[in-house]
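Consider the following assembly input.
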Amino acid sequence: MSTIDRPRLDPGYRRHLIRCGPIAVAVRTRSLAVATALLTVIALLAVAALGLGTYPLAPDAVLDALFGGRDTLDRTVVLEWRLPRTLAACVLGALFAIAGALFQTVTRNPLASPDVLGLSNGAFTGMLLTVVCFSASWPLMTAGSVVGGLATAGLIWGLSRRAAGQSFRLIVIGIGVAAILASANTWMLLEVELDTAMFASAWGAGSLNGVTAGALGGAVVCSLPLVLLLGLLTPGLRQLDLGDDVAGASGSRPARTRAGALLIAVGLVSIATAVAGPVAFIALAAPQIARRLAGAPSLSLTLSALVGAFLLLASDLVAQHLLPVTLPVGVVTVSVGGAYLVAVLIQEIRRRA
Amino acid sequence: MTVAAISRRRDALGGSRTGRARIWLGLLGLLGGLAIAIALSLTLGSNALPFGDVLDVLRGGGSPEARYVVEELRLPRTVTGLVVGAALGAAGALIQAFTRNPLADPGILGVNAGAALAVALGVAFLGMRDIAALVWLAFLGALVVTIAVYVVGSAGRGAADPIRLTLAGVALGAVCSGITTGLTLSDPEAFEHLRSWNAGSLLGRGFDVLLPVLPFVGIAVLGALLLAPGLNAVALGEDIARSQGANLAGIRIGVILAVTVLAGVATALAGPISFIGLMVPHVARWVFGVDQRRILPVSILLAPAIVLLSDVLGRLLIAPAEIPVGIVTAFVGAPVLIALARRAKASAPS
Amino acid sequence: MPDRTTAPSALPTASRLRAEHVSLGYDARPIIAGLSTAIPDGSFTVIIGPNACGKSTLLRGLSRLLSPAAGRVVLDGKAITELAAKDVAKRLGLLPQSAAAPDGITVVDLVARGRYPRQRLLRQWTDADEAAVAEALDATGTRELGPRRVDELSGGQRQRVWVAMVLAQETELLLLDEPTTFLDIAHQIELMELFARLNRQGRTVVAVLHDLNHAARYADHLIAMHDGRVVAEGPPSEVVTSERVEEIFGLPNVVIADPVTGGPLVVPSGLPAARAEADGR
């Protein structure tokens, strides 16, 4: 790192300049602090998640087991039973949140989420069709949901292609297709046995119950290239905030950036949905929470990912250990996310009053 | 502001260019359609009756079997369809005009989520099974949540900002639906009740349920019609509306009250019937222009016709089984919405 | 065909940016058909014309935001559509009408967004970036606004900040689409002076303006458009004549000598009664 003596421009907030070899970037001090705090909280929650359960472990026992302790039972419980689920909560939460941030940036609409493209409904339809037509085995349901989600996204994309770049039209068509699928889902749920319907609904709410290390590994391997690709798009994505004309005039390609970002977002959501089902509200709420924590004008993908990981991990802890009955984590994320949005609204009202 | 919005304003200012003949023809078609829908709803079903028999029953005669089918099953069902349709049509037209958002739907005020939560609570904790009692509970739920949405969406500045109102509806709706899902997933009986309620149905709502809610609907529909001229002023933007002497605060409260009662009653009676409130005002706007004084009455006549026809369709498609009406309306309404969005001049929110 | 004061080929100076028989429009609706014009290097060129005559469309075509349906826009000898977007943005900056600042962004951050074409993935904020932003702020007199939020600024301040953002792009060609609209007369003049200064420092400035008198006073080259065609181009003293203003804008007028600069000054001549007569004709 190097230090610079000349007086710096004052951007209106404190920031760190990082100069290291080929890297030269400026980072908001507050964003760094928020990221550090989030990482700490996530680590603490993870230790708690690894320790809680019918075979409770103290935090030091958890750490011991993680870093090569000798107690084989502890190691089995922590590494094989609980670690995949805890890691899945972090990774999938981050994936949902990144996808949400992309949708919101591209559509410039804080209420947009992957559901706009009917992904959740489509995934649920695919899964229900699999259950109704074939069997309720986990790999088949996963395949059904991914195919359903992608097919829906493709359909909406095709229907709105003529209006490329008009995010409003994309949203309207998404609402229409999502409504048809939601009705189809309601109807299928009516036609199957009560047990099957309840099982399917639990999956439809999004749940980490069936997560295995293998599924998680697959999700990481599939999403890593997409996230790296996203890194290349980020600067152009930020120019979109200024409106298409300014973005285009300053040398970015708004239409291409937008299409690329949407494709990556669809990919990330499909991967996460395949593992955990359509977990609601993380994609919608995490980017907005991150933005408010950082006090920054643009959505930050990194901070959104951290908030997403935190939200899903915390919600899963609540769903598993704090409620009288064990519920799918999606039920908790919806309530928590909704309550948060209400809090934000009330806060804004206070500020203006 | 978009070009579409500008042309909308110009139309609103200069009066509609739609010819009188077209309006009368449209009105005639509308009334004819509604009559046909009522006739079909009374005649068709898994046990189809000749129309003559239906008329006999209505005049006070007919075979006992026909009397049972018409008086106990089809007449209440048809009246339910009329009430629900008229209420949803009026509520949809009001909320779209008020938020100046062509995509607004009464559901955005949290009506559906509140009613569903109340039904789930009633079944899970109060052991309620009777549809007549659940209707009132659902209405209460819709009322409470809508008022909460209104309070969150408007507190502090005394005026409800449509955007904040929408956000508040989304947020509170999410909280309610989360709790509802949680409740139903841990209580199979509540789940069973709610999965059929969610589909939306006109079946089994007798006159004992219908008659008490009729005065509410009647007053709210009347109120909606009285609000129409004020909403025309609102369409030009708040500043112009104020300078034209419109009482914005009064219009707001009137709209919120009317929408709450109308959508609440409809949802409580029939469950969430999607797309009627969204689609019907659009169709009315296509045919009759942008004047709210026409859109509102047309929506009130057109929506029941569509609800009844959808219900008849649901009875016939997979007879002797039935598809619930809420699902049929989504399958009919969503393609209309998509076609609308794909048209070159699809109206974007201003 | 209306007469041309100066044929494009007869221009004495070289032109890095020119349009050759371009047709421009949206969807299938052409707004400009077969238009040719050239921007003299180092000039302060102003495009004038009535509403909907294609001024902004031409500017969008010149800046690569709109691809021509026919013909080509040439920048430094190459068709602009064949150049990479970032290459164009390093040579040519545009301030469009529809600029939107994200909520809560500060002035320095907004101006820094103009550095986009010169940034690379790992080098987002170098000393060169910082120097360019500082220079752009100084040039527009907005340096002391740096830490403030853009949405807190007055209209005139905000417009200067947007100009600073385009300046931070460090381009020799500067295209401005109605930069003074919605500003009061003092702020309009302040901005025009700023553009004139930037022009004197060596930049080629192209602006679309509504105010004929501002155009006549500050430009050294005018392009007058009507109905998607160039009706006249050349120095203001030759382009701004009473007949031509009436022909383009349909406005009866007299052109007098500007008491300050001696250049042309358009004064509408229609008194209410006289206008009524003209309407009745």
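Residues 1-5 of chain A have pLDDT under 50 and may be disordered. Ask yourself how this observation constrains the way the partners meet.
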